[in-house]
# Entry
Amino acid sequence: MPVSLHHIVIDAHDLPALSRFWAEVLGWRILSEREREIVIGPDVTAPVGICFMPVTDRKVVKNRLHLDLTSAAEDREAEIERILALGARRADIGQSGAESWTVLVDPEGNEFCVVRPKSTLIG
# Structure
């Protein structure tokens, strides 16, 4: 049997705060909370979740991996505003302004994008 994706792991300086931010952004819930690990997901049977692990150092460079989020086209701007109200910030990583995505950073500076809706994983 081939391997499958189980968790996306995000290092966190403030483990409880960052995991709760992402749970709110995604409409997920806390599935497991331990001293050195918090897991969020839509439910315990979901194929993939996000696991937050504590680190003592702060993020200082652009992520090598980031999440792309999407919503219905008519909800996109309202969703960006909702995410900003939860504690995200807009980020300038050299965009031209013509992109079909908006770059944001979470409360600890991890970049992520809100992309235009698509019906497939490519294109």
